[in-house]
């Protein structure tokens, strides 16, 4: 069964919700974004992957004022892997308190569960050089 328009909308809105929850500090709602066993891979930033919602919440709180004040997502491309599982590629922009910005690519695996779509794996890839370094 192909990914239908309702699923595409639901997954895109899920990805968009990320910025709203983090920017508002609503870390008690991360279960609306992630599966309980989510792997949040930040190895591109020199960190170990975070396993589970509690680890994401703790790492976010530990980062404190170094967190971006605004997370924006754009350029969402969805590809069905299997029925109920989607690969979502998107671009992320983070605005810091000093006005500087950073860019990442989110490479997500999104799964449909009893509570709807949730991110089960997120790899955050830093964008550091133009044209992917080519």
Can you put this structure into words, describing what you see?
This protein is an alpha+beta fold and 134 residues long. It has a single domain (5-128), classed as Nuclear Transport Factor 2, Chain: A (Roll), CATH 3.10.450. Helices cover 22% and strands 43% of the residues. It has helices at residues 5-23, 53-63, and strands at 34-41, 50-51, 70-82, 85-95, 101-113, 116-126. The chain has a 6-stranded mixed beta sheet, covered by helices on one side. A hairpin with a 2-residue loop joins β5 and β6. The longest helix is centred in the N-terminal third of the chain and has 19 residues, at 5-23.
SSE blueprint:
Layout: H1 5-23, E1 34-41, E2 50-51, H2 53-63, E3 70-82, E4 85-95, E5 101-113, E6 116-126
Parallel strand pairs: 1-6
Antiparallel strand pairs: 1-2, 3-4, 4-5, 5-6
Organism: Streptomyces cynarae
Domain SnoaL-like: 5-123
Pfam families: SnoaL_4
Which structural traits does this protein have?
134 residues, alpha+beta, Nuclear Transport Factor 2, Chain: A, 22% helix, globular, Nuclear transport factor 2 family protein
> Which spans of ≥5 residues are poorly predicted at pLDDT below 50?
none
What topology, given as strand order, has the largest sheet?
2-1-6-5-4-3
Strand-residue fraction? 35-45%
- What class do helices, strands and sheet pairing give? alpha+beta
Q: From the coordinates shown, what is the CATH architecture?
A: Roll
Pfam families: SnoaL_4
Protein name: Nuclear transport factor 2 family protein
InterPro entries: NTF2-like_dom_sf, SnoaL-like
């Amino acid at each position: 069964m192909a990914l239908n328009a309702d699923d595409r909308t639901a997954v895109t809105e899920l990805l968009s919700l990320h910025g709203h929850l983090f920017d508002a500090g609503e870390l008690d709602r991360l279960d609306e974004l992630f599966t309980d066993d989510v792997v949040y891979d930040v190895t591109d930033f020199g960190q170990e992957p975070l396993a589970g919602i509690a680890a994401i919440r703790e790492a976010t709180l530990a980062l404190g004022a170094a967190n971006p004040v605004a997370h924006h997502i754009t350029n969402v491309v969805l590809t069905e892997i299997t029925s109920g599982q989607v690969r979502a590629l998107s671009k992320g922009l983070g605005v810091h308190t000093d006005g500087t910005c950073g860019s990442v690519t989110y490479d997500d695996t999104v799964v449909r569960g009893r509570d709807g779509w949730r991110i089960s794996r997120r790899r955050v890839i830093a964008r550091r050089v133009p044209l992917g370094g080519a």
